[in-house]
Structures
1.
Amino acid sequence: MNDTKTLSVKPRDYLFDNYKALLITLVIIGHFIEPCYQNNDFLYTLKWLIVSFHMPAFIFISGYFSKRELPLSIIIRKLLIPYIVYEFVYYFFYIFVLHKETGLHLLYPKFSLWYLLALFVWRTVTPYVKKYPYYMPAAITAGLLIGLSGMQDNYLSLPRILYFYPFFLAGTSFNRDSITKFGQKYIRVLSAAGIVVFTAFFAFAPVCRSLSVKIFYGRYNYDFLEQDMTEGILCRAICYTIGFAMTFAVMMLIPERRTFYSYIGTRTMAIYLFHGLTYSYLKECTTILKNINTIPASILLLGGCTLLTVIFSLSKLTAFTNKVSDLKLPAAAAQTASLFFSFIWHWLRQKYTAFRWFLYKRKTNTNLTHIMFFYGGRF
């Protein structure tokens, strides 16, 4: 009996465990150098390199492990309930530890919690989206056009949800065997060379000094980034290209065997949660992060971030996040959430239709003065 059970267990794919371990470390580094990355060229280049692919790659992997369609009740229990719980955690942390004025605004995710909300939306809508032809071009188009929106950038994290959705969709369609197929030595050498050239571009290209790293965040519209429509759409299209290219280039260099850090890739939720609390404290209550200026101090900071990755991957912290994701949801709450999602889905379809009408009227040079979107918003 035990032997049969053992044989039926699917072996872990250490490629993705190792990749996630790297990415979660880059997430911490990317956040911790935010207040100081402009203090020296080393951190400036590193910041550009990290934001260019770390979230696209993370979301791509999340999509890969979301191939199996789950009931809405399970998605709610695994993603929406933890999101609400952690919103309360951050709320009380802000109030009682940081003494920071804030509210319990569940429609405006705090710090990095937008990712949980985004995963909930992606996992819920993807089975329906993939029933339509050309869903990937449509998703990319939506990601480009949301940059024209004047809606508040953090409302339900909709701008980021739409911007990053193509990476999630790509992950759901990804064939794992292609890594083995294209994993020859010369491909790995080309990938490494491409990353080196790309890093040098970030370090020395004048255009990186004239643009903001926030072009990769997906959160901000083109007006905020001081771009017109053509410039913004072109820039974002380039960001998509970079994100996909770097995701696969780095993947080619990740070992497929079990390593001493592979376990970290299985504990990313705890790391994601607790590093945000630590960063928020250091940013709001100290000046440590702002005063990182020299190269030695920068390297010390990177070492500290790596150490935090190890600390927050401790089994006791992971046990906490596992318990939160296993909280039972009453059936009535699940039904209410289902009705709410249905309402949101119909609302988004209406806005999509309105936006298509907007584009048609723009193309025909018709007066757009009285056409309004998002209940009084603008494009």
2.
Amino acid sequence: MKRRGFLTASVATAAFGAANAAQVSPPGETGVPVPGPRLPLGPLEDTRYPDGHIEAVDKKYFGTTFPGFAGTTGVERVATGFRWAEGPAYFRAGRYLLFSDIPNNRIMRLLEDDNHLSVFRSPSMNSNGNTVDRQGRLLTCEHSGRRVTRTELDGTITIIADNYEGKKLNSPNDLVVASDGSIWFTDPNYGIGGNYEGVQAAEEQAKHNVFRVDGQSGEIKVVVDDFTQPNGIALSPDEKKLYVIDSGITNGGPAHIRVFDVDIGSGKVSNGKVFAEGFAPGFTDGMRLDTKGNVWCSMGWADPKEDGVRCYNAGGDLLGKIHLPETCANLTFGGLLHNRLYMCASTSVYAVYVPAQGAMVP
């Protein structure tokens, strides 16, 4: 399939109905690498088995309480040269990782077999979060497009959501697709606050909401409306819990993860509570769950010793950490067995094999 095909926008004619999103051409540079020397690829400095970058909270229980410790594995830098790497999504059929380089206005593609790196889409409408649906299609949150889109198998682009009650969305950030086809996404204002990660614009939504798009009718509804800055979002393996990050510390609010009971069919959430906190002055941004219900989340923006990933069990207990040399924004499980953790961290992408398996399908 030619790249030109991926740049063709189409109006949705299937279940999601029609949408009217204006095409925005963001100003600024596109596809420009980070200036200066590239960071070295491969195992991180001072790697030795067991890798010191992988830390269990209780050192007596490596590999049992903390599913990040595989013994004979180490954290590797598999790609570098970006301005702000975000939104990783792994495609098992092609064995490649897609991720956003937001300020450079592009989506990158990293082949798993030989780490070949190329540009998948440019411009990308300052894409942020990406994921894969049950049909193997790419879904993307676009800052400057102020919309959620789906790339069809023929390369055309379907607009899933770009407004609510006749007003433009703020800047969709991250999303998850449920087994019934419903799409759940967060809508903070990060992408319209300036011209670096999007296009500066006025907010039209009165609140920073978490939305659900019905998988059959395409109807969009607010499911939670009391976040300061809703960010990463994920479902538990049984789809009975909805996890949402609030990175509102950037705007005078909290830095924590909340969890809700959820009915994916009706879109109703209830019994919201704080699942994990204690991140300040830093915060977490993105997260994924493994098949046992453990929550893996990114960390950064404060103490460099805390840069990387944290893992919590389903009860909210901290199990362990993966330390990276850069602030981490988001992560996903990849590999044919979903046991390779890919981490988008500032200018680079890191990877490590873990005993856990990601819960996302496919």
3.
Amino acid sequence: MKPSSILPEAKAAGLFGRFPREGLVSLLVLAAVWETLAQLSPTLGIPPFAVPSFVRIGRSLLTVTPIDVAITLLRVLGALLVSFVLGMTLAMVMYLSETLERHARPVIRLLMAVPIISWILFAILWFRGVEFRVAFVLVIVCAPVFLVDALDSMRDVSRDWRDMLRSFRPTRVQFFTKLMLPATLPSILTSWKIVMSLAIRVVTIAELVGAVTGIGHQLNVAQQLFSVADVFAWTLVLVASLFLLEYVLTLAEARLLKWRPA
């Protein structure tokens, strides 16, 4: 696929479009207020480390270790793939069995109601391996979101379409690959955007309390050293990583949904 065919959709998503003037002004005002506080902190009785200047934050950015960023992203992507496969598989099984859906839905809602910090504590108490702890927390939080969104999308597929395809007596595999998956693809991609943002926040908390590598661990080190500049630097890296993943997902969405009218 040529880049020119992706460009219209990407522009529509705001990736290559002009940055809103209001947004730029807001960011500049926020930056100016922060830098003013950093310069006036001694006069205002604020500890200098509490409001670091952008120069100090920039120095902290230069000390960011790429290996920790890569480890966090690999944890997120690996857990998201497992969560997606698990969620989609269970959604298809529950779609085929209304009895199973009626029994499983309360359990899924219960899992989604449990706070993230509780899952982290369970993981620490139940498992020894750090990587398995992080993966468990990510999957138990993200998989139900994929499951519920996919199942609801399948239920919303037009009955006429379903009856028409069933008239050709397809196999179950053909029923899902020829109708359900293409029809629910927009909703699935939206779920990926939501879950990706959720996973970035969850992995940081999980690494914060149990890992010895990754962005969350580095944030914990910065907190122990009372280095607000390092906290800002790693937070900026985390936000930039999320924007990068969303950018890649938006390009994939433009390619997969190129059949949709603009």
